Amino acid sequence: MQKIGLVGLGKMGVLHGAIINALPESRIEAVCEREKFIVKMAKKILLNDVSYYDTCTSMMENETLDAVFITTSIKQHVPIIVEIAKAQRDISLFVEKPLAESAESARLACETGSDLRGVNMVGFQKRYSLIYRQAKKLIDEETIGRPMFFIAHSYSSDVLRQGKSWRSAKGTGGVLLDLAPHLIDIILWLFGDVKSVTAITRSLYSKEVEDFVNASLVFQSGLTGQMDVCWSVRGFRVPEASIEIYGEKGNMFVDDDMVKLEFSDSAAHQESQVFYKQTFGTSVPFLLDQPEYTEEDISFLDCVQRCSEPPTSFLEAAKVNVLIDQIKEAASGTL
Length: 335
Hints:
- The chain is of the alpha/beta class.
- Helix content is 36%, strand content 27%.
- The chain folds into 2 domains: 2-123 and 290-311, Rossmann fold (3-Layer(aba) Sandwich), CATH 3.40.50.720; 127-284 and 319-330, Dihydrodipicolinate Reductase, domain 2 (2-Layer Sandwich), CATH 3.30.360.10.
- It has 11 helices and 14 strands.
- The strands form 2 sheets. An 8-stranded mixed β-sheet has the order 8-9-10-7-11-12-13-14. A 6-stranded parallel β-sheet has the order 3-2-1-4-5-6.
- Helix 4 links the parallel strand 4 (67-70) and strand 5 (92-96).
- Helix 3 (56-62) runs parallel beside helix 4 and helix 5 (103-114) packs antiparallel against helix 11 (314-330).
- It starts with a strand and ends in a 5-residue tail after the last helix.
């Protein structure tokens, strides 16, 4: 039985905690949460048979854990990683996306993680979507030939008015740190390293952070792409992402629900093939929210058991922070 610690009892902490406790070979053993009100509520309705701590150091000193899930605000990720590493080197760490608030902080996380005896992973759950895995397979097999260019977007309706919240706080909020990381990770996974960036950002409702970003990307392979991300688009009840890929032999359209291929020999002869989400089904033992969350937790715990590197290790996830910083630098002065 794998004994797991959990730092942070927000939405994602509750989600991961429920999944871990539903899996047969894992259990939440301890929780670190500084808000006393949240702890009181958790003991009543969520996790009443675990030990609670107000610091990570005290949790690590008093518990024997196999891994710790860090699901706090972004700004706290790296300080918590460092605090846990100082208290216990023989530990594995899972961190919710993104790894850090900047490339510099991500570098510190990677250095700290490399000194630990366990494995480390960042929660980019779209990598566990059967749709995006199918898209990756088709691109690697050159089903549409060599990709020539792509257009990608991610939209939500999270910020539609002025107001104070964590999303509008400089250093912890902004669409680039909140909504964009999942799409950026998928883009880097599908197409490789970026060579150069031009970008603009816009503040639509927020005073200190960006609500919209447009980035033009040139990859090491020569591929070019456009990316739009905005959390101030009305009509998106849940965040939606999509990528249109135009290749030498055909085109591919990918979103959270399907992969569509289009081939054309002439204006009069066109063929298409669609892989719907339902086509693949799911075999996860426990379904809470999207199955990708369960898949990524199972993958991480399996890597902990086998001492093997997860696909989204700290080093891999740091690439997202590097590109975010490049976009911010390229867009400097356009907010």
